[in-house]
Design goal:
Elements (H helix, E strand, L loop, with lengths): L2 H11 L40 E4 L2 E3 L18 E3 L10 H5 L6 E3 L23 E3 L18 E3 L10 H4 L7 E3 L23 E3 L18 E3 L21 E3 L35 E3 L23 E3 L18 E3 L21 E3 L23 E3 L18 E3 L21 E3 L23 E3 L18 E3 L21 E3 L23 E3 L22
Parallel strand pairs: 2-3, 3-4, 4-5, 5-6, 6-7, 7-8, 8-9, 9-10, 11-12, 12-13, 13-14, 14-15, 15-16, 16-17, 17-18, 18-19, 19-20, 20-21
Antiparallel strand pairs: 1-2
Length: about 550
């Protein structure tokens, strides 16, 4: 090649690419290079994604439900959301986790991780981690250090016995902590477990082994679940800092009256004036129980404007009548443990849409319960009148009623008239009254054809009442004076599933074997606590034909 031509080519190749006068520099092709044909576009190389996993976005890796036993390789370092739930992982390698320094979400739910298989120090390399899900694993101790950026931590359904101060402490962004279904005791939960984490609104500690309320709970709590523990005492001031608390579950513990300070959960509201609630027009639930409102504490217009109010709790307030001026669309009215002694015809006329009415443990008598008191409640399904002084069933009960509770009254007779409209009634509770078989008038039970549960326990019955409803499935007769069970005692109740005859006067010879022959659905018969052991031979159920 002549030197001038070579120099010209070198000069052209050295021109900057953005020069308007520059000619394109063409690649030198060789035979073993594979280049696209003219018109094809150059595509970027595919993103790295672990085998069998999916990577719907550049920052997301999902390896759910693949039965993985090893942490997947080839996870992009830029991953922000990593899900490995529903696998068989036994451990998380430190070097693999610590290099994922941009992680915001880590989902390890439902694996087989032990505490030894989860490297504490790896979390120190994840400064942006906000959501960690470790539920349904085999952890016995929580990670000692979780990042300051954490917002939600789910460690439920493990075997946790110990939480460390910096597991959840010093986390200013932490909002929700789920620790239910573990083995935590108070010694495993440090005094300063939430120090520096004053934004926590949800703390779930149900189904553990706590014996008292954990101290130093965040003042920001809105939901605190402590059911199914061993808590025996809630001292005065135990929740004094939790002014935002809206949900507190303490059922299924070991609490007694002695373990609850009288002022722990009670306010001292003695007056609700008209207009005080006018700014809460969207209010649906109003709980005013355990206050000293008294007979004049509620002004007639106290609830004016609360058109959306669904539920009103006023139990244990010393009220002497149903409050006037209740919202028309109220669905549930709870008035137990007051001093209400009478119901007039207009007492409930303002609330025709009530579904649930509780007047238990007041001072109601049959003489002061007007026969029109309930007739306006065409939607009523549950009526609780337990613990009053009634001697008769109320008149004028609505046909919509499904559950009627009258235990611990003084009911001494039943007749068909009060039940003529109760064709939808499914449960009738009459335990701890004064009923005898002779005081139950013929035809009474035919008025309640849908009745499935009948509680006649702790009355004065000498034998099983005859002609019980055909639909009956549960019959409670314990604590009576029943001395014999005849062959036709349950002839009218072929669907009976459970029968309780505990603590009567039965002998083995006083029960006819034929009494149970046709009860093919019978599953439970309780005859304990009688003068001698009574064994009932259960009827044989017909075998179902086997499918071929």
């Amino acid at each position: 090649m002549p030197m001038r031509l070579l120099l010209l080519l070198l000069l052209l190749g050295s021109l900057p690419s953005h020069s308007q006068d520059a000619a394109p520099v063409l690649p030198i092709l060789t035979e073993d290079q594979n280049f696209p044909h003219l018109g094809e576009s150059l595509q970027p190389p595919p993103r790295a994604c672990p085998p069998r996993c999916s990577c719907p976005r550049d920052d997301t890796v999902s390896c759910d439900g693949l039965d993985l036993q090893l942490f997947p390789s080839n996870i992009t370092k830029g991953a922000q959301h990593l899900s490995l739930q529903n696998n068989q992982l036994l451990e998380i390698p430190y070097n693999e986790l610590s290099r994922l320094c941009y992680l915001r979400t880590l989902n390890l739910h439902n694996n087989q991780l032990s505490s030894d298989g989860l490297p504490d120090e790896a979390f120190e390399s994840l400064p942006d981690l906000q959501y960690i899900y470790l539920a349904n694993n085999q952890l016995t101790v929580a990670p000692q250090f979780l990042p300051h950026s954490l917002r939600i931590a789910d460690l439920a359904a493990n075997q946790l016995m110990e939480i460390y101060p910096l597991t959840f402490g010093e986390k200013p962004e932490l909002r929700s902590v789920y620790l239910h279904d573990n083995q935590l005791t108070n010694t495993g939960l440090p005094f300063d477990a939430f120090h520096g984490s004053e934004a926590v609104t949800t703390l779930i500690l149900s189904s553990n082994q706590l014996s008292y309320l954990p101290p130093s709970l965040p003042s920001s709590l809105v939901r605190l679940h402590l059911q199914n523990n061993q808590i025996a005492k809630v001292p005065r001031g135990a929740l004094g800092r939790q002014s935002q608390l809206r949900e507190l579950y303490l059922q299924h513990n070991r609490l007694s009256d002695a373990g609850l300070d009288a002022t722990t959960f009670r306010n001292q509201i003695h007056h609700v004036p008209a207009g005080r609630l006018s700014g809460a027009r969207g209010l649906q639930y109003l709980l005013l129980q355990h206050n000293p409102l008294g007979p004049v504490g509620l002004e007639p217009a106290a609830f004016q404007g609360l058109r959306g109010l669904h539920t009103l709790h006023l139990y244990a307030n010393g009220l002497e009548e149903v409050p006037p001026g209740l919202p028309r669309h109220l669905r549930a009215l709870m008035l137990p443990h007051n001093r209400i002694s009478k119901l007039g015809p207009q007492a409930l006329v303002a609330t025709p849409f009530l579904v649930d009415l509780n007047l238990a443990h007041n001072r109601l008598t049959s003489a002061h319960l007007h026969h029109l008191a309930f007739c306006h409640l065409g939607h009523l399904q549950t009526l609780d009148l337990a613990g009053n002084r009634l001697t008769l069933l109320p008149q004028g009960l609505p046909g919509s009623l499904q559950v009627l509770r009258l235990p611990r009254n003084q009911v001494n007779s039943l007749d068909p008239e009060p039940m003529t409209n109760l064709s939808m009634l499914q449960e009738l509770h009459l335990g701890h009254n004064r009923l005898r078989v002779g005081s139950i008038m013929p035809g009474t039970w035919q008025e309640v054809p849908s009745l499935k549960l009948l509680d006649l326990s702790h009355n004065e019955l000498s034998f099983v009442p005859p002609d019980l409803p055909e639909a009956l499935e549960f019959l409670y007769l314990q604590g009576n004076r029943i001395g014999s069970v005849g062959a036709q005692a349950f002839l009218s109740t072929p669907h009976l599933r459970a029968l309780v005859l505990r603590s009567n006067q039965l002998l083995m010879t006083s029960i006819s074997p034929e009494a149970f022959l046709n009860l093919l659905h019978l599953e439970v018969v309780d005859t304990s606590g009688n003068p001698e052991p009574v064994i009932v031979k259960m009827p044989r159920r017909p075998r179902r034909p086997q499918a071929h």
